[in-house]
Amino acid sequence: DTEVTQTPKHLVMGMTNKKSLKCEQHMGHRAMYWYKQKAKKPPELMFVYSYEKLSINESVPSRFSPECPNSSLLNLHLHALQPEDSALYLCASSQVAGGPTAYNEQFFGPGTRLTVL
Amino acid sequence: GDSVTQMEGPVTLSEEAFLTINCTYTATGYPSLFWYVQYPGEGLQLLLKATKADDKGSNKGFEATYRKETTSFHLEKGSVQVSDSAVYFCALSLANQAGTALIFGKGTTLSVSS
């Protein structure tokens, strides 16, 4: 199984709502990532989890709260978002984070398209 | 700092034309290089990769060769199809950088007409 799954596929939420995005992989990867992608732009790294511990937070606002309950699951909790947070949120995984080059290949999920009203 | 520069396009071609998308990089170490493709409304798919100098990555008729002397990883395909229309991202990843993720170029939009 070389698949990264993400749910939901689409999400519309108001600025006062609380919602969560979910990402799952069963490849035995120990690194998982959240990226944000605006239209016609490359993905921007938000968070990196390595062995279920947060290893990188790219100065992301606290209204985004990541969680890694186990090595297969990654969540992104959303609260009090702004309309400018509307984007495609991509999850990715790799065997390890920052290890030898052979283990750096990242597998991406299909993304959650988020609209904040 | 480490970076990737690629031609931004859009690139517009007729079916069966030859494709080249240029990509150059700047890195302090010895990066792995990747091409990802994003079809409309979808996530990123790894198209091909190369992990050391002179390696050639290939997949689905696409090829790219890791050229350390010119710090380049240009994407080529001999005969494009309408189904190749997508956004192509060149990216690098550096070895032994704890927690380092991918550094992407800005992406090149390819549009192929029949």
Protein architecture, described:
The complex is a heterodimer of chains A (117) and B (114). Chain A is mainly β and 117 residues long. Chain A has strands at residues 4-7, 10-13, 18-25, 31-37, 44-50, 53-57, 64-70, 73-79, 87-94, 107-108, 112-116. Helices cover 0% and strands 55% of the residues of chain A. Chain B is built from no helices and twelve strands. In chain B, 0% of the residues lie in helices and 51% in strands. Chain B is globular, with a radius of gyration of 14 Å. Chain B has 114 residues and is an all-beta fold. The model of chain B has no long low-confidence stretch (mean pLDDT 92). Chain B has strands at residues 3-6, 11-14, 19-21, 23-26, 31-38, 44-50, 56-59, 62-65, 75-77, 86-94, 103-104, 108-113. At the A-B interface, strand 5, strand 9 and strand 10 of A face strand 5, strand 6 and strand 10 of B.
